[in-house]
Amino acid sequence: MIYTLTLNPSIDYYVTLPEVNLGEVNRIEETTERAGGKGINVSIVLREYEKETKALGFIGGTTGDFIKKSLVDHGVHTDFVEVNGNTRINVKIRAKEETELNASGPNITDGELEQLKAKFDQVDEGDIVVLAGSIPSNLPDSLYRTIAESIREKGADFVVDTTKDAMLEVLSLEPLMIKPNHHELGELFDTEIETFEDALPYAEQLVERGAKNVIISFAGDGALLVNKAGAVTANTPVGKLVNSVGAGDSLVAGFVANVKVKGEQEAFRYAVTTGSASAYTFGLCSKEDIDRLIDQVQLTPLKRMEETT
Q1: What distance in Å separates the CA atoms of residue 188 and residue 220, rounded to the nearest whole number?
Q2: Cα separations in angstroms, 21 against 12, 17, 95
Q3: Are 194 and 207 in contact (CB under 8 A)?
Q4: How far is CA 202 from CA 146, 169, 185, in A?
Q5: For residue 214, is pLDDT > 70?
Q6: Average pLDDT over residues 90-113
Q7: Which letter, b or e, does each residue of 216-251 get, where b requires 16 or more Cβ atoms within 10 Å of its Cβ?
Q8: Band of the pLDDT at 122, cuts 50, 70, 90?
Q9: What is the pTM of this model?
Q10: Which residues fall within 8 angstroms of residue 274, CB to CB, at 6 or more apart?
């Protein structure tokens, strides 16, 4: 089983219009509602790979009911903690520029938090748990570490895709994969990262600190995988950017879906393809989108600059 955790899910309400004029009435051309949240996106894409996946987290109210039904319709198992208050609605504006209006989620009580922690008792050896998204301000900053400790005690693996401090806190527990983009990697080390060569020594430090695999995304310029076996880069397939929301989550899903069957490097190739496939479509990608693009993505070994001179 592949579990995903989304602490603050949402309904993502997409509105499409030519442009937004502040202070005026704007006529929307099209609207779409989707279940949102990083872990939820991962679970939905995992179903395109026909993987068994269960979504965990907090939901509440009629908006929470919408999310649960949407996941069930995709074939995703759910085991959420029901909370008082409504799950949030985030507005995604698709105009000349992408704009997001993200709401706060409901308050989580101590009792509800303990219910969530107990959900991880079902995790078994060989499972993978994806911890995705930032930790809401009303929850303990150490929550991911607490959950990761429980996961590792059971002999399961975990992947973490979150903000700086929460990610650094779990490195010593040897996450199966972490996924900062090149801007986030630069922030971790107070430097600017522009190329694969710039990123390599810092990604290696994250491996030395415990991460089994580090994927650094460079958006349309490809991605870098670093682990103890070395470093490889992947190009992005040709396509037109339609919607960046969910592309990073799709990359995570592509890696997790393939790593135990195809190995780390081939999982990386599928990860980059899956992320690109979602970026090139409105919403999240299908398996057909992935299959159409996979042959375009090639891996190239990357060595340190001093090794090439």
Answers
A1: 22
A2: 21, 10, 10
A3: no
A4: 26, 17, 8
A5: yes
A6: 91
A7: bbbbeebbbbbbeeebbbbbbbebeeebebbbbbbb
A8: very high
A9: 0.92
A10: 45, 250, 251, 253, 254, 257, 285, 290
In 3D space, the residue among 192, 186, 241 whose CA is nearest the CA of residue 219 turns out to be 241
Residue ranges with strand state E in the chain: 2-6, 10-16, 30-36, 53-59, 77-78, 81-82, 88-94, 98-101, 128-132, 157-161, 177-178, 213-217, 223-227, 230-234, 299-301
Terminal-to-terminal C-alpha distance of the chain: 46
Of 84, 6, 68, the closest CA to residue 38 belongs to: 6
Residue 304: the pLDDT is 67
| Closest listed residue to residue 234, CA positions, set 196, 289, 202 | 196
SS3 169: helix
**pLDDT range class, residue 244, cuts 50, 70, 90:** confident
CB-based burial label for 75 (10 Å; 0-12, 13-18, 19+): middle
**Which one is catalytic: 12, 157, 249, 289?**
249
- Residue closest to 303 by CA, chosen among 232, 251, 245, 254: 232
Q: Which pairing describes strands 10-16 and 30-36: parallel, antiparallel, or unpaired? A: antiparallel
Is-contact 88 65, C-beta < 8 A? no
Confidence band for 96, pLDDT divided at 50, 70 and 90: confident
Question: How much is the CA Rg of the chain, to the nearest whole Å?
Answer: 19
DSSP string, 30-61: EEEEEEE-HHHHHHHHHHHTT--EEEEEEE-H
CA distance 262 to 106: 40
Contacts of 250 (CB under 8 A, 6+ apart): 41, 42, 45, 274, 275, 277, 278, 279, 284, 285
Q: Residue 249: how many CA atoms within 13 Å on its side-chain side?
A: 25
The answer to whether 249 is a known catalytic residue is yes
Nearest to 257 by CA among 79, 78, 44: 44
CB atoms within 10 A of CB 30: 10
